[in-house]
Amino acid sequence: MHATRPGRCFAAALILCGTLTVVCESHAESPNRKGAKKYSLRYKFQSGEVLRYKVKHAANIRSNIDGTSQEVETRSESVKAWKVTDVLPSGEIQFVHLVESVKMSNRTPGKGETSYDSTADEEPPKGYETAARAIGIPLSVLKISPSGDILDREEKHPQPPTSDDLPITLELPGKPIAVGEKWTTTYEIEAERKGGTKTEVRTRRLCRLKSVSRGVAAIEVKYDVLTPISPYIEAQLVQRLTKGLVRFDIEAGRFISQRQDVDKNILGFAGATSSMRYESRFREDLIAPQKKVARKR
């Protein structure tokens, strides 16, 4: 995926490496505090409802290889929707995932800036055709448990392969927890060594219930690599190395916002003097449903 030539290095930084999760383990860690109030974090959707989120993502990648510097910027703003089709007595939830609109831009060396707005452009510019075909149609149908484990997933539209360490929902603890408690999910993913051979890398997502205020849980989330890795492999995984905060409405049973950031310097990823700076900001906020106004007769 990565090479020592500048153009290919940016392609690798912008597109997630083809990784495969082969092991996924989750467990909670509890501090020894007697009498602490515990909270049950569970997804609680209702059949027929539609949850819409405004999603913003911005990334800036700067690299220097053999004295040649390049910079790439990407921006996107979209509205995604989860249309709940069924809720079983056990609490299992089935919903359809789709993207209703998107605005995207990309600035690369030598090409300037290109952009696409699905709400305004009748025809997408070159390079945005795939994104345009995915607007407004079901992308996948998922069934999740109340704790967010994906029990079944059916792809309805061609899209990049999914990986279990990048779930569509945040995995919640399997039991009530108190403020300060942590839970983790570990993964074994594949990465590429120089020369094209594969290696397994152990990673984890660490969550901590930071606080609860007015029925909203603030959850700190951080993604770590546990296996010692080379800068070459770290550059493949850099988009995953996020840390941030998720706000979860306990009574309604859904997250209302999340913030995930990456700010990482990688030295020597494509030769001894090479360097990469990767910065990204991800924001997702629940859009309040519009209230129906009764018509006057």
Brief account:
The protein has helices spanning 6-14, 129-133, 231-237; strands spanning 23-29, 38-39, 50-65, 68-87, 93-108, 112-117, 140-144, 150-155, 177-178, 182-192, 198-213, 216-225, 243-249, 254-267, 275-287. The protein is mostly beta strands.
Output the number of helix runs: 3
* Number of β-strand runs: 15
- Helix fraction, binned, reads under 10%
Q: Which geometry do the CA atoms define? A: globular
Indicate the low-confidence ranges by residue numbers: 1-23
What is the terminal separation in angstroms? 64 Å
Largest sheet geometry: 13 strands, antiparallel
Structural class, from secondary structure content? mainly beta
Radius of gyration: 21 Å
H/E series: HEEEEEEHEEEEEEHEEE
Mean pLDDT: 88
Beta-strand content bin: over 45%
Outline the structure in words:
It is a single chain. This protein is mainly beta and 297 residues long. It is 7% helix and 51% strand. It is built from three helices and 15 strands. Strands 1, 3, 4, 5, 6, 7, 8, 10, 11, 12, 13, 14 and 15 form a 13-stranded antiparallel sheet that branches. A hairpin with a 5-residue loop joins strand 4 (68-87) and strand 5. The chain is globular, with a radius of gyration of 21 Å. The termini are far apart. The relative contact order is 0.20.
